[in-house]
Design a protein that fits this description.
By secondary structure, the chain is α+β, with helices and mostly antiparallel strands. It is built from twelve helices and 13 strands. The chain has three domains: 2-72 and 123-189, AhpD-like (Up-down Bundle); 74-119, no CATH class; 206-322, Jelly Rolls (Sandwich).
Length: 326
């Protein structure tokens, strides 16, 4: 269910279809998946929810014989959604929560989300929080809500092991940025320092340990094509490589996410933003890396490479040099 919820939030219908098939194979019923995808309209919007339900319908039609499962029970006569929702929200938040800034939104949260939706018994409150955390991990710019729902999940009886299971599941499905985002939220709620998180869809790769001695800060390397040598290099905030020179080749840099810097010896630094392409001339001393407050990722490969081409690594970029860049 973790992968299903995260793919719904990301709007990735092809990957969602695969995850739905895996869900059926693992014993999830159609109605359980419907319940989760319907709930998520409150967190990811009707368009993503409806698209995801459409994908579920297509997978069901393609598979033919699927387990529908039981339906949610009818709510009792005289059910008070506002009263029940307020109680559920209080338990989830750990204290009474009133959004006085926007009373209409406060009512929607209490009466509809935590009243009408959370009252449906096909998924437990703990299940619903696991679904919500998984989905919010797939969205950029919602870290405060993600952290709030990590806390809410714990208040609803979800264990730390289950929360960490979301991270493992996302990572096993190739969603590294989403896994890191979830991992950061769990760390923050647990009182641990929250690591900087790349929100890019480009692969993070592995820690660039083989070249760590030539870098200030942590970088990651993902080999994208073994024939051309095309790589994606990810620089955590503040990370940069040493001054260096390419002999016998032109290095091509294509920034694909975040913000950073490229600088040639004796020249002003050039800001790297998505779409900026740099052709590093052969024999020119230079460095490149992330800005102080942002991840940066660039693709890189060598063009016009001559036999015996090599890299010459030089001195680090000092803090004094780096800190002049804004």
């Amino acid at each position: 269910m973790t992968a299903i919820a995260c793919h719904e939030a990301r709007g990735d219908q092809s990957s969602l279809a695969i995850a739905i098939g895996e869900g059926f194979d693992a014993g999830l019923t159609a109605n359980q998946m419907k319940e989760a995808l319907s709930q998520l309209y409150a967190y990811t919007g009707f368009p993503r929810s409806l698209n995801a339900l459409g994908t579920l319908k297509k997978v069901m039609e393609q598979r033919g014989d699927v387990e529908l499962g039981v339906e949610s029970s009818l709510l009792p006569s005289g059910y008070d959604a506002l009263k029940q929702g307020t109680e559920v929200q209080t338990k989830l938040s750990g204290q009474p929560f009133n959004y006085d800034f926007c009373p209409a939104e406060d009512y929607y949260l209490k009466a509809h989300l935590f009243g009408d939706i959370f009252a449906r018994d096909l998924l437990t409150h703990a299940d619903r929080e696991l679904v919500t955390v998984s989905a919010l991990s797939g969205l950029e710019g919602v870290m405060p809500q993600l952290q709030a729902h990590v806390r809410g999940a714990l208040n609803m009886g979800v264990t730390e092991e289950q929360l960490n299971g979301i991270v493992a599941s996302l990572r096993s499905h190739g969603m590294e940025a989403e896994a890191l985002r979830c991992e950061a939220a769990i760390a923050a709620v647990g009182g641990q320092p929250m690591p900087a998180v790349s929100t890019s869809s480009w692969p993070l790769g592995e820690p660039n340990d083989a070249y760590a001695k030539y870098f200030t800060g942590q970088s990651h390397l993902a080999l994208l094509d073994s024939v051309s040598g095309l790589c994606n290099v990810s620089f955590e905030p503040g990370c940069r490589n040493n001054w260096h020179v390419h002999h016998g080749a032109t290095q091509i840099l294509i920034c694909v996410s975040g913000r950073g810097w490229y600088q040639e010896w004796g020249k002003p630094a050039v800001e790297l933003k998505p779409g900026v392409t740099i052709a590093v001339p052969e024999g020119v001393k230079h460095w490149h890396g992330a800005a102080k407050d942002s991840w940066m990722q660039h693709l890189t490969y060598h063009a016009n490479a001559k036999p015996g081409n090599s890299n010459e690594w030089l001195e680090p970029v000092t803090d004094e040099q780096y800190n002049t860049l804004q």
